[in-house]
Amino acid sequence: TLFSALRSLYIHISQNAADKGTVAPRAFIDKLKELNEAFRNTMHQDAHEFLNYLLNRIVEEIEEEKKNLHANGNGGDNGSTFIHQIFEGILTSETRCLTCEKVSARDESFLDLSIDIEANSSVTACLRQFSASEMLCQRNKFFCDGCCDYQEAEKRMKIKRLPNVLALHLKRFKYQEEVQKYIKLAYRVAFPFELRLFNTVDDAENPDRMYELFAIVVHIGSGPNHGHYVSIIKTMGIWLIFDDETVDTIKENDIHRYFGESNAGSAYVLYYQAV
């Protein structure tokens, strides 16, 4: 399975911690290509799509394993997987009818949050926009159970349960009708090292939870189908930049170069850990 290939890779790294140099994740890549044809060609692939595929695939494989254990009478645990325990949060879509004021709420789980970005903005401002009220009117009227009719309504997204690790995907690739292709939005979007999510529901558990930035996936290049990814990760208090086989330290004061609008590259996925 993909999970066992990834597990073997991490075991190899941890058991050979004193070794210098790099580890080529060939067995993992081979398994990935076998399971998903999108990764079989030499084209540049999307890091966020890979994250989504990896997390969901691991969940599927663990749940399949549990099901088999259960079928064989070994009483597999039916609880959530470690992926859910780390990454899962719950979003609530709140819709308020403007006629009778009735509020309807619908929950959906997430493993990462994708947010729209704007030029010269910040992650905090983009998150505020993510939870801004949206009017449902004219053709988009909402069917209100209280009124038993389509009514104008106000809709907004709030976070009901905060994840332990928040993966924030900045939507830098946008389809442009005029050129009929995806273009990159190399906007400058400032991101904080500490983040508090204010767009939570009133009864959210631990709504003042503080998050600390610990990893960044950076896209370098002008478009989604070509370019290069590097990762910046904080380990034992030191920031490291991983660029293929090269690993260098980077000063915290230099990380702002990856806000965007420079040749250095643009932050694409941000990882925040609850503290």
UniProtKB/TrEMBL annotation:
Q: Which GO terms describe its cellular component?
A: cytosol; nucleus
Q: Which Gene3D superfamilies match?
A: Cysteine proteinases (3.90.70.10)
- Print the keywords alphabetically: Hydrolase, Protease
Q: Which residues form the USP domain?
A: 1-275
Q: Spell out the reaction equation it catalyses.
A: Thiol-dependent hydrolysis of ester, thioester, amide, peptide and isopeptide bonds formed by the C-terminal Gly of ubiquitin (a 76-residue protein attached to proteins as an intracellular targeting signal)
Note whether DNA-binding occurs among the keywords: no
Which biological process terms from the Gene Ontology are attached to this UniProt entry? protein deubiquitination; proteolysis
Which enzyme class?
hydrolase
PROSITE patterns assigned = USP_2, USP_3
Q: Look up the domain of life of the source.
A: Eukaryota
What is an example of a Pfam family matching this protein?
UCH
Any one Gene Ontology MF annotation carried by this entry is:
cysteine-type deubiquitinase activity
Could you say which EC number(s) this protein's record lists? Answer: 3.4.19.12
- CDD domains from the UniProt entry: Peptidase_C19G
Family statement: Belongs to the peptidase C19 family.
Instruction: Supply the PANTHER family for this chain.
Output: RE52890P, UBIQUITIN CARBOXYL-TERMINAL HYDROLASE
Name the chain's protein: ubiquitinyl hydrolase 1
Species the sequence originates in:
Coniophora puteana (strain RWD-64-598) (Brown rot fungus)
Q: In the record, what lineage is assigned to the organism producing the protein?
A: Eukaryota, Fungi, Dikarya, Basidiomycota, Agaricomycotina
